[in-house]
Amino acid sequence: MTLNRRDFLLFLGGAAGAVALNSLQSCGPNAPTQAPSPEAQKFGFRPVKGPMPVTTDGISPAQQLEVYKTYEVADDLILPEGFAYQVIAAWGDKVGNSRFGYNNDYLSFVETGPDEGYLTVNFEYISDIPWRQTYQQVIGKSLPFEEVDAAVKKAGGKNGLNAFALPDKDPIKAKIREICKEALIDQGLGVISLRRKADGSWERTNSQADRRITGISGLEDDKYLKATGPAVAIFQKTQGQGYIDGLGDRIIGTFANCAGGTTPWGTVLSGEENFQAQVAEPVYADGTAADPGELGFSSASIDGQGNVFGLAGNKYGWIVELDPANPNDYGTKHTWLGRYRHEAVGVRVEAGKPLAFYSGCDRMGGHVYKFVSRDPVRDPKDKANSKLLTNGMLYAAKFNADGTGTWIPLKADTPVNPDSPSNIIGQMIPLPGNAGQASPLSYLQAKKDEQIKQFKQKFKTLGDLYTGTAGEKQGAILIDAHYAGNAAGATSTARPEDTEIAPDGSLYISFTAGLSGKEGGPDKRIFKGPHGETPYPYGWIVRLQEVGNDPAALSFRWKILATGGEPAVGGAGFSNPDNLLIDAKGNIWMVTDMGTGGHNKAVQSRVDAEGKPVKKSKLMGVFGNNSIWYIPTSGEDAGNAYLFGCGPMECETTGPFFSSDQKTLFLSVQHPGEAMGIRKDMAAEMREFAMLSADGKEFVQSRKVPVGSNWPGKGANDPPKPAVVAIRRVDSGAIA
Ligand code: FEO
Ligand code: CA
Ligand code: CA
Ligand code: CA
Questions:
Q1: pTM exceeds cut of 0.90
Q2: Which end of the chain is more exposed for a tag (fewer CB within 10 A), N or C?
Q3: If you count DSSP H runs as helices and E runs as strands, how many of each does the chain have, helices first?
Q4: How far apart are CA 186 and CA 180, in angstroms?
Q5: Which residues have CB under 6 Å of ligand 1?
Q6: pLDDT tens-digit map of 208-255
């Protein structure tokens, strides 16, 4: 599809933000010029040419050896021919009385009319390198980084500097406070109102509801977040084993807001994910928090941001519900949904049935969870449905290797029955063995099956692991959901990222990587590569169907839809699936989250000095930048992955969300320049990669790789900024 002069002018003049005309090219300079493959024609776009040969690129394996010999990575959002993007908002832009935050992630567009609505945006975290480098330039004021670096280096301990314990008159405390405040303002949620113009572009309308809910909402104003459910009894304690902030059910702020979900009644759900980087995660057996000093401030990574404010760790790691249309709503944390490293929320709401909300805990060995409401839904569009989230049960998934599974309730009378460490990659399961102990940090790292036997002799039910009244025990179990889940025998999985419900009620889960680490690892009977490999770093997309298609079912079946990895070795061509978006036909749009450190990292050889294949995790560079894929879920193409786009340098593309007419795909570009910061004077490096064609023939690719990023400004030496874009077809047709 070519861009005619009228389209060209329309895009130049009509957009509220910048429009990338070079997004109308394929990724590299060697883009094939042949006609679209029949497969591509079926899906409405010709896949862009990524750095790696895939079976879905319309190029024969023999041609791939030539076509992919050279490749140029672009510091831009690259889309198929006939598509363009418009920047809607970027870090630092005005939002209400605050600013557009950093590292935009989940996007939810709640429509208030055919061409208008509220776009709610999650702001997940700050990337310390570009944030520190560009803060003054973008925000227009300076922060005392050098003084704080020096003071923390001098005084900080193993867990950072406990600024909370410093006297208020200590000048360094005020400086740490200043940095942490700005970092927390850049996290949380934002609501911006949008209207679509006749030419299909979007403009901000700055309504009364445009506002920010930040990591410090409530700290200096009365805009606290609220809480519901059993953990409220813990928050309201006036004495306990651990730290109590004295605020009761009022909560200061939300941060680490990764992915989310949208309800049919027009509210947005936001998952607090890596909260453990800002506040101490471990809790006591009575559910009270660790002392804020257990995680001090670290100036190198700008982590431990909750320490100086004395934030209570047990108030973070929840799902927040927000009504974007209500300017007075600053969010509610529903504690029945559990406290863990929430990625997203799969929302299943059907009239006459209990509602089911699914969410994954994105950590090595994290679980997949389901909350089922006690009461049924009457009208899915009724705002009173939020009440259904205040009473029900939280379950954690047990996956069996035969494709079946069950849901285990996380309540006091559930039997203690952990898995065996010998079934886990890395052979370790952390258990809450701390009942009655003084320290909250004493999770039992079970490494031997024998320890599990002893644990089961000591504790019979989950209620034996926690203390308090029946109601308080339920609160403590929900606060400690990950560890309680391990004690109950929930499956240790491969970092569940998104959980999305398809139109037929199936749940799709992206498991991003099957690796193990200090916190645990996945079950090796379940999370295997195409040839049974463990560990397997490239990830999977799994489909889960409840027995009887009943949201409240206690058993399910599961099946792998697509496996990450190079096509030559059985993968679908992507690595590390993250957010999923399911279109009206039930097909998947998926974005990847490969760790920034591995992006375009040269691969000199596929064998080591002794001639043995190098570890798969050393080959990550072949996949290039993070990218956007289309994956049909039915028919002969089911599970094949077609490349729809590539992100700018060192970024993640996150939060894809369709307008209801599917003519606009809203997308977040998170952390451009995360590793190298500003791209200086258009710097680039030539790197070599030992690549495989789709049929497994080895060849060398010379790849030109920009160093750092100038996106979205794209001018020489522009600061990289996280930003949200609207993608649409140049001909204004539906995308899916
Ligand atoms: Fe924030 Fe699990 O991605
Ligand atoms: Ca994510
Ligand atoms: Ca991720
Ligand atoms: Ca992320």
A1: yes
A2: N
A3: 10, 34
A4: 10
A5: 124, 258, 273, 343, 362, 497, 578, 593
A6: 999 999 999 999 999 999 999 999 999 999 999 999 999 999 999 999
